[in-house]
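A student in our group prepared the protein record below, which I am reviewing. Here is the record exactly as it was handed to me.
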Amino acid sequence: MSDDGVENKIEKLVAEEHALLERIARWLRDNPAPVQVPAEERSAELFDDEKALDRYRKTRLFTSGMLTLDLLACYDPPLPFASQHVPGSGPVTLLVAENLATYTSFLTAARALDEATRAPICTSPGASAAPSSRAC
């Protein structure tokens, strides 16, 4: 790629960043005390596209810390704690599966067991999203 091609790409990137910053500056001026909302809602408000903010978060304006979700009064909402209870006899066991595929396969296998002889199980996908203690 020629130097002119690189310079044109840089100029385009800077112009896009400038336009983004101007749009956010206008929003901040017009909304001096915004209510915190999920990032997708703020993205729809700012850009008429609930996914746009996800794309911008991968750019240097966000990765450098110049723009933040706090500045935009938004946040990533937590994933809900999904769980399934599989009835059985005896005390309930909590099983947290590593991922959704394992969780689904385990539920299928557990439900195929005789309810009279299987232990009751409470299962949840995604150990990283699971709270430290939760009843099923």
About this structure: Residues 127-136 have pLDDT under 50 and may be disordered. The CA atoms of residues 96 and 127 lie 6 Å apart.
